[in-house]
Design goal:
Helix content is 49%, strand content 26%. By secondary structure, the protein is an alpha/beta fold.
Length: 117
Amino acid sequence: MKRILFIIFLIPLIVNASERDYQERFCASIGGQAEFVLPDRTRVDCLTEHHAIEVDFARKWAEAIGQSLHYAKMTGKAPGVLLIVDGERDQKYIDRLYGAINRWHLPIQVWTVEKTE
């Protein structure tokens, strides 16, 4: 029983570490600052000269829209989203993200990166 509980608690830690790894690599590659803390104590995953970027797994595309828009408002920079995608299975999330962006004419820059194991 203890082993099962340990595994259940460990799974979110693995996912969070992976997300942060993608965030840090992407942010460094574009010359941004990772985990920039805003006055309201929220954190921009990657802040660059021109963009406030939210990094998330593809299935969390909708949350990424809201967070990127909030970060953009707080920083005066353009909103951006980096989606971590797992091959073709995540295409539906990319389509949903672009569908919302196009329907509402949202000025969100989108990047994608393939998930690695």
